[in-house]
């Protein structure tokens, strides 16, 4: 537990992604099984101990610390696990117990029932120091809050054992914690685990943005780019899973899809909600905003299912009836896909159509109309390319419609992270109401050069008129041209609008703030 | 015996000793002030006459240009005192920073101690806290919650040294309050065997010199502004907390950001300040010190001033000690704890 506690402690304070990666790599290389596997599971949120909840911890503390002092402390610290770790009495000096392993802690917590969970947790806490107690409680309650995504953990594994991240992604979901066969394979002590009859994840093939190149449509096929989320549905070994692009399982939020995807196959497609926002009645998909209502839920109410019915627009077939199609060229996969889609329930699946365009110019014209049709853009896929993981040059391109732009006024600024920790690099900007008031419409932290960042940083410092914790309010004099992909109604902001992918496209030092755009102008662009 | 309430009046901006017509640590300019120590939330500028230890007066002279030689200012050494309006005042070490004092007042057979800020653990830069018997004990409560238990200082210094040695191409930038904390960290580093030059922010220069003049050796100090970037790799840099992660730090070789403060005990606090290396080093009593001190002094009544008054009040209630909270304003300099 000491090594794990030290890792958690360092991760809490480390901000840079590469430093976090280095810490995890070092831990995985130098920690024995099964502790490192359990640690990895804890970091990626793969552990759950139903008998141990925040209430268990509160009850436990209640028996040892005055309730009022616990309440005051909890209020100050803001986190139950940390409060408990700090309040728990240290073991008397000289009475150091034998070191507790992560595996022992996991075993004890897994075997706990609601009845004996407090006693079990107490006996574990008694064997640890402050950092150890914090790590144990975070492991027990979930929600590490150390800024490590599942993707980062997988990358650390790949780096630690010099294996390909694609292999790690594939194997990850097929092997339960503490991942002993994965480590054995990583260290070259065992062959790659067999994935027959397992609903495992296939790393996604990704696209580069098209930047000025002209494409020969005899080599490339074009499809519309739909604004939903990319998903992979896998049915195999009696199981159905839905994976997001990062390899996260999101099936629980879409039970209606799990219920109807019953073919032995792996498909790649866009998860959307039924509607007419994208491409009208023919397009048949609601805006991304509608889909957002469905994301991130652990359970879904019946009303949600009725109000925001989800479906998948399928564009690739990676495996079917036991054979892996990924090595085949796109045109062959497409041929098989067209034959396969009729096997799926039409209520929840349709085929992403190929755009009929003879020449690139014709496609360019179609793309130019994408904005009016409220479609995100077009995708270009090389006809003879196999399905390969990651972003490979020359195979797939995304060609988004041109962004919208608006002239906004900088209102607030905040410092960035890592390399940008000393720069005010995150800007909140607003537009004018008819009453002449500025209301925030978005926040951006990219799009400018390093020199422009220096200039913006200095502007913020020289024009600060108020401070709210880390946030500076600035004089409302600087116009920023903001580019964004689309804008939607949103209850989260006072302006009632939210931008997608906003970035600073130009600094308009030449433009007086009162000539910036009005909220009404932005509202007219909303989809 | 006199009733304290008849002669010592708590006001939001300080304690007023009526028979002596004198304020203790007033938050605004007054005719006559007794000052426990030099931190800005206790020592303000603009008083006509100041009673304080010679060290505190020197600090006030440095910070506010107080004229030490003026006849209306009175240097009162530890163990010494003066009488005014029938009240006998004396100053006793509080162990907080150089010159910090508890003030004992005796009036018609009643004894009241005002601690100002204090700590109980060893500090190479100032005289250690002395327990003074009293009827009413007026204590600070900065860390008046049981989550605050400062670990041994040596361990925190060892963490700092390990971080410097682990990445010799970087430097460790320690945020430390300019009066007290900075000098203590330096002195503790020297005691732990770190004899390399320590690089400091210009804002620390004069206070470090003042400490040296008062017999606290700090070893070789260099100004960051006069040092080459390369020369600071593998070294320890000290700056006031406000300079962390700001433009000033861009001149340093890839600094690891550390901060020496009792607040660093709470992880989320450290994270909010973007601190990578939290050092729990405090000049204030932690929970155990606060409660042990009340138990040791064992006054008839405790008055609790700035900080987490509620926590310490609750402890007094649980241990059946008479206590009340005074709500003084303008205390609690977050940076300084």
UniProtKB/TrEMBL annotation, chain A:
Q: Which GO terms describe its biological process?
A: cell division; DNA recombination; DNA repair; DNA replication
What terms describe the molecular function in GO for this protein?
ATP binding; DNA binding; DNA ligase (ATP) activity; metal ion binding
Q: Could you tell me which Pfam families the record lists for this protein?
A: DNA_ligase_A_C, DNA_ligase_A_M
Entry keyword set: ATP-binding, Cell cycle, Cell division, DNA damage, DNA recombination, DNA repair, DNA replication, Ligase, Magnesium, Metal-binding, Nucleotide-binding
Record-linked PROSITE patterns = DNA_LIGASE_A1 (PS00697), DNA_LIGASE_A3 (PS50160)
> Reaction catalysed by this chain?
ATP + (deoxyribonucleotide)n-3'-hydroxyl + 5'-phospho-(deoxyribonucleotide)m = (deoxyribonucleotide)n+m + AMP + diphosphate
Per UniProt, the enzyme's principal EC class comes to ligase
Q: What is its EC number?
A: 6.5.1.1
Give the ATP-dependent DNA ligase family profile domain ranges: 303-433
Matches recorded under InterPro entries: ATP-dep_DNA_ligase (IPR050191), ATP_dep_DNA_lig_pp_1105_fam (IPR026333), DNA_ligase_ATP-dep_C (IPR012309), DNA_ligase_ATP-dep_cent (IPR012310), DNA_ligase_ATP-dep_CS (IPR016059), DNA_ligase_N_sf (IPR036599), NA-bd_OB-fold (IPR012340)
Q: By what name is this protein known?
A: DNA ligase (ATP)
The scientific name of the source species is Sphingopyxis flava
Higher taxonomy: Bacteria, Pseudomonadati, Pseudomonadota, Alphaproteobacteria, Sphingomonadales
TrEMBL record, chain B:
Q: Which residues form the Metallo-beta-lactamase domain?
A: 26-173
UniProt cross-references to InterPro entries, sorted A to Z:
MBL, Metallo-B-lactamas, RibonucZ/Hydroxyglut_hydro, Xnuc_lig_assoc
Q: Which GO terms describe its molecular function?
A: RNA endonuclease activity
This protein is called what? Putative mRNA 3-end processing factor
> Whose protein is this, by species?
Sphingopyxis flava
